[in-house]
């Protein structure tokens, strides 16, 4: 896919004086939903501010669909940004917040009004549109910011913690909206610390720690490339003690534990492919195996493997 269809970082570093923001970042982000994962200070917001042109890199080059980020007038015709911070003009209603952005964008009154109502309806804020934002709940403020960031029909949507403050129903509706936009070809780049939601909605993830990209790609692909860490596999079977004795005969198995419910076995192996072949042989020779599944094929476990004990947060 050509670079003008991607968000591209070429050897990008950002320093705040002596403090590292991000260092030597090389990324090529395709359409779909990409989640940035990492604890506080890992560099997620710095990456978002860089790709949005709000800050300039200390070195390196960033392009968004082939547009340099030092061309803001051109960039923001194709990009929408919803920050995690609230900053609204004093006294504005939700409608005025979205409408004024479209007027600054260059829309005539009629077009701006039409697009404003369309964006507000999309995020389920029609009933509150004429109310002042100062009286909104946290979730309502999140939704009106999302309406503003999508009202001009961007091709790239950058969202910093967009699900914060949303109740479960609105959260589910918002995730469904992200998926619909992604299926239409939009780049959606999200930072989130709700890791089970990252797993559910992301086409790919970028894992960050201390300003460095430590892994990127689909979760299953990232996990399969981690040769230094054994893969955990949960096997449901009728005779876990017998199975444990058999699997320990394989050199690549480093640990086997009876599951706490007594109905399965949790195995750690450094060679999953060989282990699965051996398991097929065991199943053909008397041990009834009900199910086999990776026990750690998710964002949280992958991040823990790569970073250690550091807890993913924001």
Description:
The longest helix is centred in the middle third of the chain and has 16 residues. The radius of gyration is 23 Å and the shape is elongated. Helix 3 runs parallel beside helix 5 and helix 4 crosses helix 5. It has 314 residues and is α/β, with parallel strands linked by helices. The chain is built from eleven helices and 14 strands. A six-stranded mixed sheet has the order 6-7-8-3-9-10, sandwiched between helices. The C terminus is likely disordered.
Summed up, the helix count is: 11
Order of helices and strands: EEEHEEHEHHHEHEHEEHEHEEHEH
Query: Please, what is the average pLDDT?
Result: 83
Shape category: elongated
Q: Total strand count, please? A: 14
Q: What amount of the residues lies in strands?
A: 25-35%
Structural class: alpha/beta
Task: Return Rg in Å.
Answer: 23 Å
N-end to C-end Cα span: 31 Å
Let me know the largest β-sheet: 6 strands, mixed
Low-confidence segments: 309-314
Spatial strand order of the main sheet: 6-7-8-3-9-10
Helix content: 25-40%
Topology:
Layout: E1 7-16, E2 19-29, E3 32-37, H1 44-51, E4 59-64, E5 67-68, H2 72-75, E6 79-82, H3 94-105, H4 109-122, H5 138-150, E7 156-160, H6 168-183, E8 187-191, H7 195-201, E9 204-209, E10 212-217, H8 219-224, E11 231-237, H9 240-247, E12 253-258, E13 264-269, H10 272-283, E14 289-294, H11 299-307
Parallel strand pairs: 3-8, 3-9, 6-7, 7-8
Antiparallel strand pairs: 1-2, 1-4, 4-5, 9-10, 11-13, 11-14, 12-13
Helix pairs in contact: 3-4, 3-5, 4-5
């Amino acid at each position: 896919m050509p670079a003008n269809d991607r968000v591209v970082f070429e050897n990008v570093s950002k320093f705040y004086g002596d403090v590292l923001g991000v260092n030597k970042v090389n990324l090529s982000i395709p359409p779909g939903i990409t989640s940035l994962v990492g604890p506080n200070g890992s560099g997620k917001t710095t990456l978002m501010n860089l790709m949005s042109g709000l800050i300039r890199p200390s070195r390196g080059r960033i392009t968004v669909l082939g547009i340099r980020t030092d061309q803001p007038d051109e960039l923001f015709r194709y990009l929408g940004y919803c920050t995690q911070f609230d900053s609204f003009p004093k006294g504005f209603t939700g409608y005025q917040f979205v409408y004024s952005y479209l007027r600054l964008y260059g829309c005539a009154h009629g077009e701006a009004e039409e697009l404003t109502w369309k964006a507000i309806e999309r995020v389920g804020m029609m009933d509150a549109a004429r109310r002042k934002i100062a009286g909104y709940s946290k979730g309502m403020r999140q939704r009106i910011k999302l309406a503003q960031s999508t009202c001009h029909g961007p091709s790239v949507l950058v969202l910093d913690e967009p699900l914060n403050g949303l109740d479960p129903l609105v959260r589910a509706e918002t995730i469904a909206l992200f998926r619909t936009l992604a299926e239409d070809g939009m780049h959606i780049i999200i930072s989130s610390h709700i890791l089970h939601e990252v797993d559910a909605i992301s086409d790919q993830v970028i894992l960050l720690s201390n300003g460095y990209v430590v892994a990127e790609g689909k979760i299953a692909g990232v996990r399969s490339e981690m040769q230094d860490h054994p893969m955990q596999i949960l096997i449901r079977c009728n005779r876990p003690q017998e199975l444990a004795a058999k699997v320990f005969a394989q050199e690549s198995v480093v640990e086997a534990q009876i599951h706490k419910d007594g109905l399965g076995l949790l195995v750690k192996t450094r060679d999953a492919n060989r282990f699965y072949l051996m398991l097929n042989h065991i199943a053909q020779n008397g041990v009834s195996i009900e199910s086999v599944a990776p026990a750690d094929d998710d964002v949280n476990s992958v991040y823990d493997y790569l970073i250690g004990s550091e807890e993913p947060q924001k």
